[in-house]
Fold this sequence. Notes:
Structural class: alpha/beta
Number of helices: 20
Largest sheet: 9 strands, mixed
Number of domains: 4
CATH class of the largest domain: Alpha Beta
Mean pLDDT: 89
Radius of gyration: 28 Å
Strand content: 15-25%
CATH architecture of the largest domain: 2-Layer Sandwich
CATH topology of the largest domain: polyphosphate kinase like
Low-confidence stretches: 1-9, 246-256
Amino acid sequence: xxxxxxxxxxxxxxxxxxxxxxxxxxxxxxxxxxxxxxxxxxxxxxxxxxxxxxxxxxxxxxxxxxxxxxxxxxxxxxxxxxxxxxxxxxxxxxxxxxxxxxxxxxxxxxxxxxxxxxxxxxxxxxxxxxxxxxxxxxxxxxxxxxxxxxxxxxxxxxxxxxxxxxxxxxxxxxxxxxxxxxxxxxxxxxxxxxxxxxxxxxxxxxxxxxxxxxxxxxxxxxxxxxxxxxxxxxxxxxxxxxxxxxxxxxxxxxxxxxxxxxxxxxxxxxxxxxxxxxxxxxxxxxxxxxxxxxxxxxxxxxxxxxxxxxxxxxxxxxxxxxxxxxxxxxxxxxxxxxxxxxxxxxxxxxxxxxxxxxxxxxxxxxxxxxxxxxxxxxxxxxxxxxxxxxxxxxxxxxxxxxxxxxxxxxxxxxxxxxxxxxxxxxxxxxxxxxxxxxxxxxxxxxxxxxxxxxxxxxxxxxxxxxxxxxxxxxxxxxxxxxxxxxxxxxxxxxxxxxxxxxxxxxxxxxxxxxxxxxxxxxxxxxxxxxxxxxxxxxxxxxxxxxxxxxxxxxxxxxxxxxxxxxxxxxxxxxxxxxxxxxxxxxxxxxxxxxxxxxxxxxxxxxxxxxxxxxxxxxxxxxxxxxxxxxxxxxxxxxxxxxxxxxxxxxxxxxxxxxxxxxxxxxxxxxxxxxxxxxxxxxxxxxxxxxxxxxxxxxxxxxxx
Length: 704
């Protein structure tokens, strides 16, 4: 290999990039790989099928819908885009088709046979014996038939609106039983998943054989009862995904909540991004459905017999624990668990809690304590995605009711969580809290809390900074880090961030925090430039960067520059990665890998060698243009050596993982000398080992 200094650096258009959309699809394929992994418990593999399907639904509602919107731009405007949207869409649809075919194959050839091997039978309408037929008929008459409202598709031009993300059966019927009936008729039925409470029906167990049916197939079997004037039927599923983009002005005003609520209703009626259909659907039935819905051939996407596999999240509990992940009881924090007061403990030292391995209860305790402590004068928090029954939000309401000055920044533009956020915003306003609805032209994505306490006439600040949301539900499945600190270097600057939310002035000075869009990009560039400078001096230079997504072109160019200077770069990227590693003369010093496993890797960690005086930042932000330019994000340093050591150990485990780690090309990392390390399990064992002998090591079992 040529000396790096002798090579002419490549710049601009010469630099390689991976298409963002195709990179996201590659990530979702890694989810599908988990469903194919025979080492993953069977019912967990089914969950990964559901995650894959749910992800793809959202992708069509957001990204594909955006591409279609770009295609409709005027040619002159479209020419300014970096990539031709029609070409990208064609590639996307081709790759989606490939993945959908593999998804169907995995379900038919792997999941279903494995279920049968464990005496679980997913029956269709053709598999029933006489006893089951009678049971299904009775069940249909008593439970499902009252929920169904057939819509006849006649020859008139009546318009039929298909609701977003809802499965329908298109029905063709022929062979009339009466002479005055038309030879053929067509109808549509909504599958009543929500009204029924589940997509599945459990049939009686016989001789330890368990039987389950889609309610789709129960309906198919009972079509003669619904349409008694015909003898022959074909029923095929369709589902529409509608554009989820919010057409609202990016401004904060008194009417923003009303705008969001209006846009939520608009989303339900947005134009279709795709119509997923069963490829076995007769053409005349498909034509009839298209004519009545106004959906064109451009929106058609081949699927399979069943849609909305996300409903497999609700696959019946069949009481076979060996087919699920072995429970990992949530660990206590070895120090915080012993402290009667979280605030008093924070005054003495910093604490770091690692979710989902350790309990989220310490966050709840912190805000509950702040709400009730008479010396606490003010409580502030940013709410991005809160749980529907959020205990954190309830504690903030309690603090406001107790006379504290409560300031809550509620991000109403947190896509798909707007309704929950609107609900809690109303509750907080009613309690007297100062509710701030985001920042003009920005989305507030930082995860911050600030508590002010009057201690002997002096005001003392306590801060909570995290990579994850204030969400008790996702804290059980998202892998995040959270810092509890009273370090004045940090709390003073967290206070400045909340001042920014109030006065919107960007002249704030930050020496310790990196805050987007004020100084985060510049701060990260400065840290990378320092490594480049050290490499050119012949000093050791390296970076370990962990994030969910790497898409920003300027940061990618900076990493290419660092690689060309000889900086060793290890990237841990779970999702989108537009950087192409291993390109000679550009990125041969860059290695990219990512972990998809039991928990969702969600923490962002940025580590810079700094000539032996390592600098580590924990962050809410990825290196995407939207995070660095159009969101309020915070990256915070760790100063306490034992906390730095904890995160470094966890990152090292992830770099050593050769069980669940994959490259950007989705190949499993298999070194010549396997370590057989599975980072998430090794992390649990490591944190379990921090609990002193004799202490209670765990709380409730981890539910997923």
